[in-house]
Amino acid sequence: MNPVDLENKLAGLPLGKIRYFDSIGSTNDYAIYWLQYGPPNLSVVIANEQTSGRGRAGRQWLTPRGAALAVSVILYPDQLQHTHLAMINGLGALAVSEALLKLGLSPSIKWPNDVLLNRQKVAGILPEAQWLGDTLRGVVLGIGINVQRAAVPPAEMVSFPAGCIEEALGQPVPRELLLREVLDALISWIACLGQPSFLKTWENRLAFQDEPVKLVPSSGEPVEGRLLGLTPEGNVRLLVGQDEQVFMAGEIRLRPLVESKQRGG
Ligand code: BTN
User: Fold this and answer.
1) Is the CB of residue 77 below 6 angstroms from any atom belonging to ligand 1?
2) How many Cβ atoms are within 10 Å of 91's Cβ, its own excluded?
3) Which of its termini does the chain have fewer beta carbons within 10 Å around, N or C?
4) Tens digits of per-residue pLDDT, 103-116?
């Protein structure tokens, strides 16, 4: 990846500014810093390597040089509609899954936003809202994709099996083209954020539909139930015993019950 090639590959997309780093701590950290200078909507930060990539719940996210995609997209609230902030999770996951579909793969989304291929996580989304007091300054939507095997974290680093796109596809994937597809899909879906078509597509792509799953909150007891789908707000619906219960994204992790039992956890 080099900046000139990247600019060419992204030409024609209605992006704001593009900042490319051969190596950076975290594209999300840079985008959050950049926000105070008011970059245009849909400005992007892209890195060939992250040395302190961040995942959800304070976890580390690996982005070894040349093996992954790490991008952060800056979005402003007037483009987002406040009530739909929770859906930014779905937006990132839909954009990645759309790009993978175009490659001929069959992605699914582990609610709220992990993208899976063959039940292995290949991409993660980290949306971070920036507030000025009560006012939303902007949202940084971080997207990390394991393209090559070198980007797949070792088993002891992850709580869910991880994989990469090239192994699922069986051939090399040009990262710039993948990035273009992801950004293209993201831009298309923003216009539909929270609308029935958006929710239906997100829901239809959910992994473990109608399967027994376990929701593991960061504190409190895990809940087991059958995955029913989404609410209009993008929360997950579970059949727990005879009752339908709704859970919000946050620090909840979702696991397929069958696999987690097989794996002893
Ligand atoms: C997850 O834990 O699943 C979310 C991972 C998000 C990783 C991406 S890579 C680009 C951006 N910069 C970061 O430091 N994190 C996000």
Assistant:
1) no
2) 29
3) C
4) 999 999 999 889 99
